[in-house]
Structure formats: structure tokens, C-alpha cells
Amino acid sequence: MNADFEKRLQDQPMREPPREWRAEILRAAARDERPPFVSLLASWLWPHPRAWAGLAAVWAVILLLDCTAPRGPRVARGSAAMPYPSLAIMRQQNLLMAQLLGPADAEAPAALPAPPKPRSDRLRPRGIG
Predict the structure, then answer these.
(1) Could you give the number of structural domains in the chain?
(2) pTM of structure
(3) What average pLDDT score do residues 64-85 get?
């Protein structure tokens, strides 16, 4: 049945639309129905859509990596000062070693000086008191 209808359409001559319709059709086709912001954005992004899509993908990956990264303090390993209990244990080991080895020509090594304590005058602004 569709074949018969299509055959009859092919046999009919093509008619020209009225000339006054042409201007109205072209005006309607040129009219932009989008909001101004969307129209501006589309005209700005249109010259290189693949480049903008690639940039958006890179930012998505960066955002994903940032969201999945562990939170909390980040401390470099091995760069922190030795804690005080470890220093005390090292001193005890040195004294024990000195006792096991017996008296030596030189005296036992002197105890290490205590770490400096915080100074309160660093906290005051200069020029006061």
C-alpha cells in the first residue's frame, strides 16, 4: 500500500511554494529560540568543540583524583626529628656499650644537650617591652 502511495507522489509534478512564504520561513529558521547566555556560550565554544571536550575531561579527572585522595596531615617520611624516647634509648645503649667494653683511654661520651625549649620572647612583636 505504501508503494502505491509513493508511486503516485513521484508521478505528481513539484510545485513552488508561494513567494511570500519564503521570507517568513527564512525569518523563522534564523530566529534563535535559545536564551542569550546559551547562544553566547554555543558561539564561543563552537569553533573547537573537541578541544573543549578534552579540557573538560582533563578537569573531570583532576576533580576525581582530588576527591579520592586521602585527607589528613601529610608528613614526609624520614624527615621528622627523632622523638625524645628514642634519644633516651640510644643514650642507655651507649652507656651499656661503654660498660660492656670496659674502661677506655678516653672518658665516656658526655650526655647530649637537651633540645632547646621554646622562647617566649619570640612570640612578642618587636618593639614591645
Answers:
(1) 1
(2) 0.31
(3) 74
